[in-house]
Specification:
The protein is an all-beta fold. Helices cover 0% and strands 47% of the residues. Strand 7 and strand 8 form a beta hairpin. The radius of gyration is 13 Å and the shape is globular. The relative contact order is 0.32.
């Protein structure tokens, strides 16, 4: 059984910062790569960031987001700053239980239910 649960979403104003968490249970996750995706209304699920043997971000992140993990408490994080209205989306964490990297959502087997982020003034 693999469980991922995101939290930390909410309503923020443009320019604000927010940190999302993804708590993992069911096994030790320190060996596996993890990723963040997001999905805005009416759009496809979009790659945000990946952490494994290295860290990779979507081009549009441009230094605004930071992915990191705390293996001690089995938690993945996404620190977001300078938020824009176009960052409004449901944010998901995911893993394929491997160390391979992919920006494609279909590659990932396990997903959390997501956490809503709304950036609005």
């Amino acid at each position: 059984q693999v469980d991922l649960v995101e939290s930390g979403g909410g309503l923020v104003q443009p320019g604000d910062s927010l940190t999302l968490s993804c708590e993992k249970s069911g096994r030790s996750w320190s060996r596996y790569a993890m990723a963040w995706f997001r999905q805005a209304p009416g759009k496809e699920r979009e790659f945000v960031a990946w952490i494994g043997s290295s860290i990779i971000y979507a081009d549009w992140v441009k230094g605004r987001f930071t992915i990191f993990r705390d293996n001690a408490d089995n938690t993945l994080y996404l620190q977001m700053s300078s938020l824009k209205p176009e960052d409004t989306a449901v944010y998901y964490c995911a893993t394929s239980l491997s160390n391979e990297m992919s920006t494609q959502a279909v590659f990932y087997t396990y997903w959390g239910p997501g956490t809503q982020v709304v950036v609005s003034s």
